[in-house]
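In this supplementary section we document a worked example of the pipeline. Step one takes a protein sequence of length 297 as its only input; no multiple sequence alignment statistics are reported here. Step two produces a three-dimensional model, which step three serialises into structure tokens for compact storage. The input and output of this example are shown verbatim.
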Amino acid sequence: MQLDNNFSSKVLLFGEYAIILGAKGMAIPFDKYSGYFSLAAEKNQYQNELLEFYEYLSNLEVIASELDLDRFKSDIENNLVFNSNIPKGSGVGSSGAICAAIYQRYLKTQKLGKLSNNNDLKHLIDRMALMESFYHGSSSGLDPLVSLANKTLLVENRNKLSEIQKPESLKNFLIFNTGITRKTAPLVHLFLEKMRQPEFENSMHQFIELNNSAIQACMSNDQDQLNSLMYQISKWQYLNLSEMIVDSVKEVWLEGIESKEYFIKLCGAGGGGHYIVYDAAMKLKGKLSNFNTLSLM
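The serialised model returned by step three reads:
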């Protein structure tokens, strides 16, 4: 029996890696993947992980003061399970969804409000970051916050977040799944190592400008500007973050750049899992027939 609402996965449309350096980001809830809590008829394979998570949360004073962790433990002992079709290790927020589900279900006040003002969002992103660090070692908190709020969020910096309407230009974006899983932490570590190289660091400033401009063009539905910026972003990532692109995608990625008919970019840390395609004229056709392709609208 389903206990609570579904919690959607998330897609970081813009901000991959750049958001670490204070650039803007845009994240959207993606309800084609989601999960919910239920009580199973018998013990399940997830109970040990949930018990470990319970122990972790119990040692976080600020979380323990807000959540009814005794109730969480009791539910685990009664075979609590998170039923999810969100691919793990795939860049679409599987751990974020379970953190959001736990926070909402076990919040002592039982009410979150509309989560529309900056103070509410700032409070929650801090809590979500603490919780999701159980899975990643460190977390921005953005993934679970998007799942919790179920809103498209604009991140101007860590202290300034706002809810926005889903841009009309999302109709030109697709997401596809390579079926390859990866861990986020090693990829972020690789990126930080690359940032030690002065040439890469200088080039990263160029990418941040492209990223921030693309968010503005997306929000204003400026298709000509977005087309130009997505070409530049796709090319920059192909040349500078090739380690985050799996071999099975590189050929079709390069073909898009050379033909200027569609443009592929990273989805989150990359390295497998999902990638994002901007295909305003729908020229991609059957080139992604080997992958599961979904619309972001």
